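[job 4471] stage=fold_predict status=RUNNING
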Amino acid sequence: MIRRRTLLTTALAATAAIGLAACTDDGSSSDASDAGGASDGGGDALSGVTVSEDLGAEPTVEFTAPLEISAAQAQVVVPGDGATIADGDTVIWRHLYVDASTGETLQSWWQGGPAGGVQVTTDSIGQAAFDVFTTMTVGSRFVMAGWQQGNDGQAYSLLQVGDVDRVVSPLRAEGEQGDPSGTYPDVTLDDSGAPSISGPGEGEPPAKTVRELLIQGTGDTTRAGDYLTMQYSGWKWSDGSAFDSSWERGAPFSFVQGGGQVIQGWDENLLDLKIGSQVMLVIPPAEAYGEGEPTEDSPLTGETLIFVVDVLDAAHTAD
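[job 4471] inference complete, writing structure tokens
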């Protein structure tokens, strides 16, 4: 619900695994379950691709362009020495994207692009890619061949090379209790860490986003450009009704901080927080989904929103 635009802009600004929006040869969308993996049986594009194995340097990718990708694929280039990735893990990686039609590098963490990651489930990456990732270990370098669709509607054939840095853990805020003002609804947590609030807001809602620290984490500090991974729940100020929750979906949410991928109240108010922190954000309409009356397509227009956000991970851009 929070994401307000796709991760692809004019050419490429993706941060997750390619192939999640796979397309057929005629440009139409195909089912995500067919996107990814060792091979879908319709081609072997990766047989013509060479990826460098020096994990201390930016990967180099060599192939003869244009490279025809008729089926999405994934394979391990260099095995890591960490733990094996498991079903449901949220992994963070450093990566680059190469245009398969030209050989041009479209985005690279080593050249200032964002980090990325994905939750490893069959629903998110498809069965075949899942089968590869769940044999992969932390520290591995992988290569994937697939597609992404831009805002212009065009499907881009891509190679993605990634170095798996870590698995996100824990999946809830941990630290010392903060000292909220008491002005806003109380927050209680269930055994898993999922939050609930005591009721709707009282009185006039704030005209600018308010941030209250509920738990003070102890990790690194978030900053602009981070690939931020979080748990969150959201409620309407007006009646306290819940409208969205990563906890209920069973998957953390990730986005590039400050990249315009989410509402303004998130982009501007999740900076300078310690990983492991939990905050309440009270966001007025102008910094959420806009002023005006709600519609079927935009039911949160005109609503002040209350979020409780657990900051789980912040993968920085290259220093």
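[job 4471] summary: Helices lie at 122-125, 127-133, 246-249, 264-267.
[job 4471] exit 0
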